[in-house]
Predict the structure.
Amino acid sequence: MSTQWVVTGSAERITLTNERHAEATFTVSNKGRLADRAVFDIVPGDGADRSWFTVEDPQRLVPATGSVAYLVSVDPPAEAPAGSYSLQGRVYSADSAPEEDSVLSGRTVFDLGLSTAPAPKPKPWWLIAVAALVVLVIGTVTWLVLASGGDEPPPSDTIGATPPPTSAAPVRMPNLVSLTMEQATAELNNAGLAVGTVKHQQNPAQNGKVLQQGTAPTTMVDSGSKVDLVVAVSLSAPTFTHPSSGGSYSGSTVTVSWNQTETWVAKWKINTTKRSCYFYIGHENRDCQWDAQASADVTAKTYQSSFNLDFQPALNIGRFNTGPVQAIVAAYDDFGNLGPSATVEYRVG
């Protein structure tokens, strides 16, 4: 059975620098129950050429229900004509032909040599008329004051008036991609900018480095602006605090709880399943199988696992017996990708 792949781009549009360079991130998810080797490449849109794009480490092992991120460099040549271009990410299994199970992402668009500066808006005619009227009134009042020998006080609204504030000078956005979080923070501070919202994406190969920035490099922004970042992380597996591995618990409900090293994690996936066997008098358990797996997404580091413990006669020589229980927990990143899981096994009944 072929692997069920899903590939998504991090942005619908990217902006090239003055040096004709940009980077885009694509996330490949394995929705199957088995790990598989994924091959990722780029399908250029009309007018673009495959040689414009470079994929970092295109073949990787993607764990079952896991995800990996691919970094794509976009470098069109100097002779490429101006216009709008696009690219799509394509993923397929390394052990099969691309046409058998390849999946495409949505289109990511970029402009080459096109000005994005908005056209200046014409000033409304009534503003010009009002300004002329104000000048006329001020000139008339001044003439009257001077003609009366200067005894009249100036208009009260001109005394102690506060000049309008001047806007901060714009600054150029630095390129933060591939920098560590500490380096990116220092670059922003040096430019008179600040870190905005930080999101985390599971990508052990780039752990600790900036994958995306909310404002494209070289863009002119107001001093003091905040810049959102996407930072690569290598999620750790949760650590169970209850139940104890190999422990036995009476009843059908057991509280499962765990700790997580990363304090920013806000959601986990937990799977629980019970093994059941026929118990034959005077013999070991036989005909064992795992029950259907129960799955849930939780926002707290705790979960109430509950199981059916009905005992039933079996062939009149034994009865249906509950076996061990497994609980498997993994943390989500801010983009819905799962990190490594932890497993604890215990008994109920």
Summary: The first helix runs from residue 98 to 101.
